[in-house]
């Protein structure tokens, strides 16, 4: 009979909760005393990688910069948030939410325009905080000052899309900013006392497992407040579609992804909140990988693998290079 690995004790992993071996949002919700949802909105922004300021065409994986359930930008912020809260409260009648500015680049406007948008969102009933997704190259000093003032009044998270630390990959996917720009933005936000969540995408064209682990190790040493990890989705209508159709790009398998993510978790500091381990793509436009449609299977595989390894988030945070070498030498095993 297969023996179960006992749950981690708090003496081993201080953020253990519900048998998870990584620092979950559920752990944070328990500390808060209730679940904080995200009310996703499209405030009508564009992107400097679309309008020609930095580039054109956008990142090759970009399908518009927002979740598929986002309300149309033609609706006012107030109407979008009211609709989102109605949706959330069908499942949780007492739902409270952060206004999530997700579509495109949500600091890409003059500070006065941003102030009006953010204040209007905060004034909506049921909204108690802000989450703002943006690019590192759209955070001038006056916007940083605005965000700092807001953070003194409400819980505020700025989400930065790094995707990879490797500039050669960034050029390949048309990200249109170097790692130094990310570092400047990250440190600027932290100096202003702002909570930062950083996105990494696994499976970008040309990236090896070693490169993806290096991105996680690099990020770990920065000690971000939160991280989102996800597999690259191949979405219809993006520049990735022809690369996939022609066979020039092969997505990672579920087994490859799960093993990689588990090792990435080992390289991140235990206090960093893991806000995502697999993405929510539009199932109607998703071409690949097909396994990403089954979120429960992905998360279950991560739980089982960490338990089988008897490991946890931050286990090798202090020795990332040695762990990466060991991971690359080890044979893979089925889930």
Features:
single chain; 335 residues; TIM Barrel; seven-stranded parallel sheet; two-stranded antiparallel ribbon; 9 strands; globular
Describe the SSE topology.
Elements: H1 25-32, E1 36-41, H2 77-91, E2 96-101, H3 111-122, E3 127-134, H4 141-153, E4 155-163, H5 167-172, H6 179-191, E5 195-202, H7 209-222, E6 226-231, E7 234-235, H8 240-245, H9 254-267, E8 273-276, E9 286-288, H10 295-309, H11 320-329
Parallel strand pairs: 1-2, 2-3, 3-4, 4-5, 5-6, 6-8
Antiparallel strand pairs: 7-9
Produce a short descriptive summary:
The protein is α/β, with parallel strands linked by helices and 335 residues long.
Structure description:
- The chain is an alpha/beta fold and 335 residues long.
- It has a single domain (25-329), classed as Alpha-Beta Barrel (TIM Barrel).
- It is built from 11 helices and 9 strands.
- Strands 1-2-3-4-5-6-8 form a 7-stranded parallel sheet, sandwiched between helices. A two-stranded antiparallel ribbon has the order 7-9.
- Strand 3, helix 4 (141-153) and strand 4 form a beta-alpha-beta unit.
- Helix 7 runs parallel beside helix 9 (254-267), helix 7 (209-222) packs antiparallel against helix 11 (320-329) and helix 9 packs across helix 10.
- It is globular, with a radius of gyration of 20 Å.
- It starts with 24 loop residues before the first helix and ends in a 6-residue tail after the last helix.
- The mean pLDDT is 93.
């Amino acid at each position: 009979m297969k023996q179960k690995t006992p749950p981690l004790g708090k003496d081993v992993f201080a953020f253990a909760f519900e048998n998870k071996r990584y620092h979950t949002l559920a752990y944070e919700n328990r500390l808060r005393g209730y679940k904080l949802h995200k009310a996703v909105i499209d405030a009508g922004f564009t992107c400097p990688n679309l309008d020609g300021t930095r580039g054109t065409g956008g990142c090759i994986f970009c399908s518009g910069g927002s979740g598929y359930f986002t309300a149309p930008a033609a609706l006012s912020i107030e109407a979008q948030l009211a609709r989102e809260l109605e949706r959330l409260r069908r499942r949780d009648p007492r739902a409270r939410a952060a206004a999530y500015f997700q579509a495109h680049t949500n600091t890409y406007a003059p500070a006065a325009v941003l102030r009006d948008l953010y204040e209007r969102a905060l004034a909506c009933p049921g909204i108690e905080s802000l989450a703002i997704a943006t690019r590192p190259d759209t955070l001038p000093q006056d916007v940083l000052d605005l965000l700092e003032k807001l953070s003194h009044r409400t819980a505020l998270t700025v989400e930065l899309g790094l995707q990879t630390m490797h500039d050669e990959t960034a050029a390949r996917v048309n990200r249109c900013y170097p790692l130094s720009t990310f570092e400047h933005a990250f440190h600027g936000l932290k100096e202003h006392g702002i909570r930062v969540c950083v996105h990494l995408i696994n499976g970008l064209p040309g990236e090896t497992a070693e490169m993806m682990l290096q991105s996680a190790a690099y990020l770990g040493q920065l000690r971000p407040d939160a991280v989102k990890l996800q597999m690259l989705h191949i979405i219809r209508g993006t520049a990735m579609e022809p690369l996939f159709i022609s066979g020039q790009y092969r997505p990672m398998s579920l087994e490859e992804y799960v093993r990689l993510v588990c090792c990435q978790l080992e390289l991140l500091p235990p206090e960093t909140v893991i806000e995502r381990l697999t993405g929510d793509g539009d199932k109607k436009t998703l071409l690949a990988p097909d396994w990403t449609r089954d979120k429960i299977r992905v998360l279950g595989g991560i739980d089982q693998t960490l338990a089988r390894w008897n490991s946890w988030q931050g286990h090798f945070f202090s020795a990332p290079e040695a762990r990466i070498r060991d991971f690359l030498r080890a044979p893979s095993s089925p889930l």
